[in-house]
Amino acid sequence: MKAFVMKKVGEVGFVDKPIPEPGPYDALIKTTKALICTSNIHEVHGRVKAMLDKKNVTLGHEAVGIVEKVGSHVKVFKPGDRVALGGKTPNWLDPISQAGHSSHAGGPMGGHEFELKRDGAFAEYFLVTQADGNLAHIPDSVPDEAAVFAGDIVTTGIGGAENAHIPPGGIVAVFGAGPIGLMCVRGCRLLGAGLVIAVETIPKRKELAKFYGADIVIDFKEEDPVEKIISLSDDGLGIDSAIEAVGTQITFESCVRVTKPGGTISNVGYHGGREYVNIPVEAWVGGMAEKTITTIMSPGGRERLRRMLRLIENGRVDPTKLISHRFKFDDIEKGFRLVESKDPEVLKVLIDFE
What's the rounded Cα separation, in Å, for the pair 195 and 215? Predict the structure, then answer.
């Protein structure tokens, strides 16, 4: 089969690989659709430590497809089923999974098995371990191009909103309206926030922030978002929750600055590639502000996937608005280079295997 791989740090391309054979608890999936993730760019550019020594590892962890073959102990799925998978495919028997943090089963990022531990999904076929725990059936009414968002973009964005602990009617600000940030905006709306603020400067993303439920969009090139957000808060004391969806020092600091005492900073941005993320001490009241910082990494598993697919099926979330570019699998490198370019018009690049 044909696979798109990281040949080594800094180099990608196609190679031929044997079609994987599923073990007793695994499933072999014929790929139909996939999405390029910015983390794939981080991996190839050497920003993910676990990938530094990898050679010819197949990239990709956002995909859907059709079950081709299952292992002898797989009970829930059969050949021919349309399935979505989690971007994280953890070992559900691991103690960290059982403690409720499956994305880190076996250690930090341990549930991120695609790419970091084994071949990913940018191939004509890919293998899913513990299939009964890591796959979900796609509802008949949900097209593959929508279902492919469930396992990473939707679950992470909704999770970021959940982690923000927004009280009903509360005020929340989302810093960054990229794909994850936009799903955070939608999640905040679904969870009952009374005022949803998005901070963004790119015109298309500002428009989508409104579409997904932002009441106010602040352009940080036109005004100071921290000052503006505090002015919108009750008595100028700060807001209930802030979500960092970019992965930069300035946005993280801003989240700390705009939250009131007792508020929550929910971090979904990736801060890899730097040694420290600094906390502004005054806004943190020297460590006494009673502000909570939460983090999340693509919660997965069959039950979580089913819930995300249900949101899509019943029109609560339409992630297809995030598709900015489409390529056939043969042209995936063009899509990869487009994401790599950081073109502001790029949101999610869909790869069609059919």
Answer: 6
